[in-house]
Amino acid sequence: MWVLLALGILALLLVFERLLFLHRGQIRATTFLDGIKNSLAKRRLVEALTLCEETPGPVAAVVKAALLHVDANAETMRFHVQEAAIVELPALERRLGSIATIAQVAPLVGLLGTVLGMATTFLAFERDYMSASALATGMWQALLCTAGSLILVIPVHVAHHFLNGRVRSIVRDVEWSGNEIMRYLQNDYRGLKPVVSEAVEAANREGPNSKRPE
Q: Is there a contact between 181 and 66 (Cβ–Cβ < 8 Å)?
């Protein structure tokens, strides 16, 4: 039971840490990308990069990788986007393996406690003083270890599946954001006209010989 208690505390810490990490890394990818496109439509590349740096999570990192290579060809841009994703995605799955290990080991620890409890019961039989208290002690140990392992394993399994679902959701956002920002940069952004002020446009319309305002 002490081993199960230690595993339970460890699992609780790992699950809590992963929940905070994934909550921080999951953003509204559609809203974030709309803000990036809005800045790029005004030819404000530095503003878009600043927004990526201020936004946590792998989605912002992948979009930033694409923006840093905005003038590159499609293959080069895709390479850097995939490289950024490869760096960011393993951090999402960190410690999930440890949580899964606890979920697999805890039933074995409970089974070991059950076997030891039954061994205590049979040892009482062997000593020829088959009292009710001796039998109850061994059976109580066996049942307590079995129940303790189940109480631990069920929520850990649920938490592991929940965290896996969160990771898959973030991975889908990363894939969609990477493809969408590359499509936008390769097609829409490069077709935009440079933004110039109204004064410059008026001066261009009047011609080089027009008198400039004082």
A: yes
